[in-house]
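Issue 218. Parser rejects a valid record. Input:
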Amino acid sequence: MVSLSSNLTEEEVKLRYITPAIEKAGWGKNRIRMEPLIEGRILIDGGESYRSRNTSHLKPDYLLMTSGGKYLAVVEAKNMDHSISEGIQQSKNYASILDVPFAFSSNGVGFYEFDFNTGLTRELSMGDFPSEDELLARLESGCGIDKDSAVLYPMHYDGVASHSKYLARDVAKNDLCSRLGVKIIRIREEGCPEISRIIYSVKPSIMGTEYFESLSNVISLVIKDILDVDMNVDGIAPTS
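Output the parser choked on:
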């Protein structure tokens, strides 16, 4: 005998199982967007701006928002003919494009999660979908920011080799620092994707005079901004 659940469409699985599980975790209807049509990231090439052909029309099954209106998680649904993890790559793609730190997939039997901050995955039962508070707490912990810490100016050097792949993680950390009133300083190599609150940029790390001059100037700027002191680094004056 064929099970009734195996004949359910994806929309029926969402209606009967996935949406109720998300709402039970405390996500109100006003913080759940279902299949919103969202424009993808704008790309810039030679001074011309355009939307990537692969990301011009995004339509994730669920976008979950914080009470402050920021996207926190993507959930991609499949029917029960698929495994719980079968939609995770699609969910990760959406999350990466939209700079969202958590990606989930579900077939109505369970959830599969990918955390961009840690790179870890896990399987969850339908009754264990995380709440907004849980995800925000994990985001804070995963970013390594302690709001009670005496560190007022966390500084990061963002190299192209790694940070071009982890845009969602960097954006999430910036947002977290903003909420905590912490001014994050990023020395970011040219070529990394642009994100908000990036003040300093250094030319790619080709070991040579040009790179070290660029880095020295940036360090001087950072010291001047934080300490309000004009300094030279190894005899190289800060840029204006």
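Fixed in the parser; the record now loads. Helices lie at 10-24, 88-98, 132-143, 160-163, 167-180, 209-227.
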